Amino acid sequence: MSSPTDIESVKLLLGEVNSLGSLLLEGDGNESARKALIIAAEKLVIAARTPGENLYLTAAQPFLNGSIGAAYSIGIFDCIPSDINEDVSAEEISLKTGAEEALVVRIMRVLTSSHIWVETGPRRYASNHFSRILGTPANRAHFQIQNTIVGPAAGKLGAYLETHNLRSPTDHHDTPLQYALKTPHDLWGYLKEEPSRAKMFNESMRSSAIVGAAGVPPFPFATELKCKSEDEVVIVDVGGGKGQALESIRKSFPELKGRMVVQDLPEVTKDTIESAHLPPSIETMPIDFFKPQPIHGAKAYFMRRIMHDWGDEDCKTILRNIVPSMSVDSKILINELVLPDYACERRMALNDLVMMSFGGMERTESQWTALLQGAGLQMRNIWRKPGENLSVIEAMLSE
Question: So where's the catalytic machinery, residue-wise (predicted)?
Fold first, then answer.
């Protein structure tokens, strides 16, 4: 070989990959084993490559993202049949889209060599599972947001930190986002000024790429939240968007007694009401969570993926606006990532930097504890479920 490959590591990792792979194929593997297999396989690839190959492929990663973006712009996703048994030629894609055939070939070289689509012959392409996933409207929107907002902020992260005394952003109006996009607005203000991107952003929140975007939170709602009558409020979903979380909770815990209320900004609740998809058992209420909580004595004030959008001081403000409305048995339930102090998964670590680019952050258990204490609350428990990325942080009023 022209450059050294880490042969000893390759030998060790091959054994680890085989062992973990067999465990999954035999049906005895769990989520931990699946994730361990991914890590071992990635380490194997790095060990098998030369240092130069690893360096180049890492440095050139933006062009893979750019090629996916170009495929969306050209219309390639709409030209290649979703049936994996059907293929299409570069010439056919060119005729359908108006794109230069040579350009289609150059873009598809990158995408097929990255295992997004399959090259079935010279200048012929077919779909695979990955390309079909990327082609859904929500995942397409997610990737376009990554390319047009997150990507530029990531590219300017180093330069931003150099001009900010090597400190994490603490002001929502002074983050890598503003630095990269040359805007005075925070993310939400920027989206308000860019309606087409706002629509794309809202669609992207349905993407399968979003960590914990859906599903029932890992919390025993039926046993932990007890209302004496149907008139009491059992759960307030603060910043709950279109109420998807409450819908999943209501469906999974039909025995849960009490009213459920989803709160969000007026324009969001108006859209939720007009879309008329919520059942009558879930109410809507327009609020700004930077103002006092109007519902007093609810059994739970629930927030899914709200706190990670904001720095510590803003989060304390959000929590302090709820605290005066709580009764002694009220709970705050925060459905978020809890980062480990050691051996963090890459997806979680990257998500933290995505949030940093807007002025938010993901947090460890000790950071959650300190944040809650700063708002007059105490952590009671962290509820987790194997295979789930999001936990539920349970807090109550400090004694």
Answer: 308 (proton acceptor)
